[in-house]
Design brief:
- The complex is a heterodimer of chains A (about 575) and B (about 475).
- Chain A has about 575 residues and is mainly alpha-helical.
- Chain A contains 24 helices and ten strands.
- Chain A has helices at about 25-35, 75-90, 120-145, 150-155, 155-170, 175-210, 210-215, 235-250, 255-260, 270-280, 280-295, 325-340, 350-355, 360-365, 395-400, 410-420, 445-450, 455, 460-470, 510-520, 520-535, 545-555, 565-570, 575-580; strands spanning about 70-75, 215-220, 230-235, 355-360, 380, 485, 490, 495-500, 505-510, 580.
- Chain A has a two-stranded antiparallel ribbon with strand order 1-2.
- Chain B is an alpha/beta fold and about 475 residues long.
- Chain B folds into two domains: about 15-200 and about 270-445, Alkaline Phosphatase, subunit A, CATH 3.40.720; about 205-265.
- The two termini of chain B are about 35 Å apart.
- The chains are: A mainly alpha (about 575), B alpha/beta (about 475).
- At the A-B interface, strand 1, helix 3 and helix 6 of A face strand 3, helix 5, helix 7, helix 8 and helix 11 of B.
Chain lengths: ~575, ~475
């Protein structure tokens, strides 16, 4: 007991790898053509922008991908907060004090691969559990007892009422007799010192630290026998949990839980019914909003640092309690995303062509439009040709840029990896730093001119022909997204060329034009489907038949005019959603 | 089992008195088990400290002359008052350590190869192309051997890049509990302090006892559940739960130790570190002006933890892999360390201004190591000092800031006379694989191995032992 038996056991790594199949050819074309330097920021090591690629790269040392295998998925930090809110009515968001921020192995904060619990994290959960339990018992004991009144019915009856109500919701499934027995023993220990309340409190502490609470199980029934291809079917409770977390980011609500208990959750029709219902909830809107931020990389706006001398308009003013402009930019995007999901078509086309947005005074100045009345945000119509679509929003342009300049490399790389799911290969051994905008030799040059070495140098051209082809198309917007027609005295050239994507290839002029190209590209819509799949499944898609088939089915039904959330609704019927391979089974 | 304190004449009786007085500290539950110990004749326990720096050194200004002196190393061997601090005689400097260029199917670069491999030894492991260390790191191997909880520390704030580069999450830590599974560092000195010296629980000792017993019952129940699920999982996720179970067992063990009345107290509980987060919420993430203070706090806490026997393994990471500290506190106004170091394209240096900057940054690190080593060297033990039974390793992810990984600097302090035959040496036996560092560490710490990582028979550093 104690230490893992063989700490050094070779570990093949979890199923991973970039998707093979229809997109493989395009990927390899890019990989072969782009045999040159690594990309990322200004060639030092990557400026602090860009989203998370999570994208596969080349041959993986972790062997053939096995698709989704039986696993447990630890609650991410925000899931933990949402679950304790839904389970106990606690809105204190304990995870903000946790040791480790979420990891983004799949590009999103719910990636199951990296979410483990070790050493000091146990203390995080212990302290949070003790605090949450004490608060819950102090403030909400009647609710925890599901209406049972100990004065009227006696402690024993209320214990049973409690055990019938809270533990199954905490574990997201009914408990076995053994499990209940363990909880009873804990209750007895606690009640011995402090009565019913103390006993209940101890049980809640245990619930909140139990693996059945901290991890979402995707194991199948305990006695499940793998079928001929080594797969097991998930239990209805497990499917309900998976479905709920995918759509709302939290535990199954009472209605979903009762549907499972009452036997009304047995097949794809039932799954779709519940999925549709949940998709209409505020929690689902919130989850979609978070997904969009993470997909587009704008969730990191709060951490953006800009050179104060180059971009004084972005600056914070601590003496006045004024944050950086990123706070306003985030506010605009939040409203955009919510409006997209709850209001209009909710489609990629709308996201990438709309010039309706929301600004406060600060943003209005940056956009060059009239400030709204009052101090809050107001709706605005932005310039239709220049500010069309999400890629022209201040927040997007700010987070994907350099500290002191527009950062075409960062913009190009992010677009390639997150919007087109292209793999960006690594750099060779030594590459000189790109000339800084502060460098005296760069005076009078535009950003594009500063990077000319990319296209003249053989070792640079391979990759940068592609990256810069995207990135320079953003040059009409500076490092905080402000529109410009000249830079350092020279006119801005915002033309670009899309290369290596297949159907999106060709010249374009400016971001709005680029967005039109993307919307016309199957690669682009396929990539979006891929991203939602990664989000839903908590890991990068593999080349196992289940993943490939699921993605193909989703992509086939998805177009730029579909609702963004449609792939999630379609997914609930797929085998990839409801079954898992057992370790060692052939994919 | 009693912990053996440093012996030494007049100091001993007052230490004993202090211990008795401090035994009444309410629930300041230290987090290590009692050492097998006590009477004279038993050698003091061995300890390990790992310090990891980024971006290489300035080669021409690092490697010392016949007096073991160089601009950068002089900062290591000189005390705050400008006089010699006595560390020279306890130092061994290895020249020639080399890291091969081996991405092994990942998109890692030299930073990653150095950082993720230095103390794990295995080839990089790919997870969706991202680079990870391929096995447990030496600090965790030894923590496992010794059944102790290691103290894993880091100072990670950066103006320039507050998070690890996208897709390179491994850069948070060079410590691994297992393949591609990081041991996450503590980055908040106040939290470290709380972990080491406990927070005041309040209440009578009966209440405290009750609390601890309840806690233990809860953990027992939780552990049982983990065990069940773990059995049903495949090899991949089974490991995840193993770490969880290990962590719970550690906590339980500490509880049991405390309940059994074997709690140990630190003879001198240090002052609580300043709460920089209260001054600036970004102080441990996006604002690196506090780095020097945070580094000092972490060093001081690590030294105290070792000196008090609260742990035997301390690791300190100085910045995310890739090294983006601005060093504005040294008057440097460039983007970040990495950008400056990249311009250092030859051993002799580049422009005089830039060479000076690289040297300045490296003398900062040297000063950090000096602070820690001198703190250990100030505590008497077994006729010498704690440093004599501690191996302090100052390592670097690269040799030179432009990604060159030959002559990666390694400085070993301590263990002279307890495994390392002599000190005050520059050891240059030509090119040696970096795996020898892990091999050397494990051999010195009583975990005999013939090789390390992907070099099964590389042996320890030539010329050292």
């Amino acid at each position: 007991m104690g230490r893992p038996v063989d700490v050094r056991a070779a570990h093949p790594g979890h199923a991973a790898g970039n998707g093979v199949g229809a997109l493989a050819l395009a990927v390899s074309v890019v990989a072969m053509a782009c045999a040159g330097p690594r990309v990322g920021g200004a060639h030092g090591e990557g400026a602090g922008s860009g989203g998370r690629t999570g994208a596969g790269g080349g041959t993986s040392a972790d062997g053939p991908a096995a698709g989704l295998t039986r696993r447990v998925r630890r609650l991410s930090n925000h899931e933990y907060d949402d679950v304790v809110r839904d389970l106990l009515g606690d809105t204190t968001q304990p995870s903000r004090g946790f040791l480790i921020a979420d990891s983004f192995a799949n590009g999103y904060d719910n990636g199951s691969d990296e979410l483990a619990v070790q050493s000091d994290q146990v203390l995080d959960y212990q302290l949070a559990a003790e605090s949450l339990a004490a608060t819950a018992v102090a403030n909400r004991l009647p609710a925890l007892l599901n209406g049972c009144d100990p004065a009227a019915s006696g402690d024993d009856a209320c214990l049973e009422a409690f055990l019938a109500y809270l533990p199954p919701r905490a574990f997201r499934r009914p408990l076995s007799a053994d499990e209940l027995g363990r909880l009873r023993a804990l209750y007895t220990a606690g009640a011995g010192t402090g009565g019913l309340a103390q006993g209940v409190q101890l049980v809640i502490e245990a619930l909140l630290q139990s693996p059945e609470f901290l991890y979402r199980e995707e194991l199948g029934a305990p006695d499940a026998v793998p079928d001929g291809s080594g797969r097991v079917t998930l239990t209805p409770y497990e499917v309900a949990s998976e479905l709920s977390f995918m759509i709302t980011g939290s535990m199954p609500d009472d209605e979903l839980f009762m549907a499972v208990t009452d036997g009304r959750f047995g097949g794809p029709d039932d799954y779709r019914r519940e999925a549709q219902r949940l998709m209409a909830t505020p929690a689902a809107t919130e989850s979609t909003r978070r997904f969009l931020h993470e997909w587009l990389g704008t969730d990191r706006l709060a951490d953006v640092v800009k050179d104060q001398n180059v971009y004084p308009a972005f600056r914070a003013d601590p003496s006045n309690g004024l944050p950086t402009a990123a706070t306003s930019m985030m506010g605009e995007l939040d409203r955009d995303f919510v409006a997209l999901v709850t209001g209009g078509a909710g489609s990629l086309r709308e996201l990438f062509t709309s010039n309706q947005s929301y600004v406060d005074g600060r943003l209005a100045a940056l956009y060059g439009v009239d400030a709204p009345a009052g101090s809050d945000f107001g709706a605005v119509t932005l310039a239709p040709d220049v500010r069309r679509g999400i890629l022209t929003r201040l927040g997007y342009l700010t987070v994907h840029a350099d500290q002191d300049s527009s950062g075409p490399i960062a913009r190009g790389v992010f677009l390639m990896s997150n919007l087109l799911c292209l793999t960006v290969p690594p750099r060779p051994a030594t590459v000189p730093s790109a000339p800084s905008v502060k460098d005296a030799n760069s005076a009078g040059e535009t950003t594009r001119q500063r990077f000319t070495q990319h296209l003249s140098d053989d070792s640079c051209r391979g990759c940068h022909k592609i990256i810069d082809g995207f990135g320079f198309g953003f040059e009409s917007f500076d490092g905080i997204g402000v529109y410009r027609t000249s830079e350092n005295g020279s006119p801005v050239d915002a033309t670009g060329t899309i290369v290596g994507t297949g159907d999106a290839d060709g010249p374009f002029d400016g971001v709005a034009d680029l967005e039109d190209h993307l919307l016309a590209s199957a690669r682009f819509t396929d990539c979006f489907v891929r991203q939602t799949y990664r989000f839903a499944m908590g890991q990068i898609e593999s080349d196992a038949p289940d993943d490939v088939a699921a993605l193909a089915a989703l992509a086939q039904r998805f177009s730029p005019d579909s609702r963004l959330t449609d792939p999630l609704l379609s997914l609930v019927g797929a085998p990839a959603f409801t079954s898992r391979a057992t370790a060692g089974a052939s994919p | 089992m009693k912990r053996r304190l440093g012996s030494g004449g007049a100091g001993a009786p007052s230490r004993r008195r202090a211990l008795q007085a401090l035994a009444a500290i309410p629930f300041a539950a230290p987090l290590a088990r009692a050492f097998a110990a006590a009477d004279s004749g038993t050698a003091p326990p061995k300890r390990l400290v790992l310090l990891m720096q980024n971006n290489g050194t300035q080669q021409a200004n690092f490697w010392p002359d016949g007096n073991l002196s160089s601009p950068i190393l002089d900062a290591l061997f000189t005390g705050a008052d400008g006089s010699d601090n006595g560390l020279r005689a306890k130092a061994n400097i290895i020249k020639g350590m080399s890291i091969p260029f081996d991405q092994n199917g990942t998109n890692g670069n030299q930073h990653d190869m150095g950082f993720a491999r230095m103390f794990t030894g295995e080839r990089l492991l790919s997870k969706a192309g991202s680079p990870w260390g391929g096995g447990p790191s030496v600090d965790q191997i030894l923590a496992n051997d010794w059944s102790i909880d290691s103290l894993t520390l880091a100072v990670l704030a950066s103006n320039y890049e507050p998070h690890t580069k996208p897709g390179f999450d491994h850069r948070r830590s060079f410590c691994y509990v297992g393949p591609a599974t990081l041991k996450y560092p503590l980055v908040d000195p106040v939290r470290v302090y709380g972990k080491l010296f406990g927070s005041n629980a309040g209440g009578s000792s009966v209440d405290v006892r009750q609390r601890l017993m309840s806690r233990r019952s809860v953990l027992d129940a939780v552990y049982g559940n983990l065990d069940e699920i773990s059995r049903r999982l495949g090899k991949d996720d089974g490991h995840k739960l193993d770490y969880h179970m290990t962590a719970i067992r550690d906590v339980e063990q500490r509880l049991s130790t405390t309940l059994a009345g074997q709690q140990l107290a630190c003879p001198t509980t240090p002052a609580r570190p300043a709460d920089v987060l209260a001054l600036d919420p970004g102080a441990e993430s996006t604002v690196d002006a506090y780095v020097p203070q945070l580094v000092n706090d972490m060093i001081d806490l690590g030294a105290v933890a070792l000196a008090c026997g609260l742990t035997r393994v301390v690791t300190l990471q100085l910045g995310f892999c890739g090294g983006k500290w601005s060093f504005a506190w040294k008057g440097i106004n460039m983007n970040c360390h990495d950008d400056v170091a990249h311009l250092d394209t030859s051993d002799e240096g580049s422009s005089p201004e830039n060479t000076m900057r690289v040297v300045a940054m490296n003398t900062f690190y040297a000063g950090c190591v000096a602070r820690l080593a001198t703190a250990l060297d100030a505590v008497p033990e077994a006729g010498g000092t704690i440093l004599d039974s501690t191996l302090v390793v100052w390592a670097n992810e690269e040799g030179r800031g432009d990604h060159n990984q030959d002559n990666v600097p390694v400085v070993l302090l301590g263990m002279v006379g307890r495994g390392i035959p002599a000190g005050g040496r520059l050891i240059d036996k030509g090119k040696q694989p970096f795996n020898r560092l892990g091999c050397t560490i494990l051999n010195l710490m009583g975990h005999p191995v013939a090789g390390f990582g992907d070099q099964a028979t590389c042996g320890s550093f030539a010329g050292l032992l």
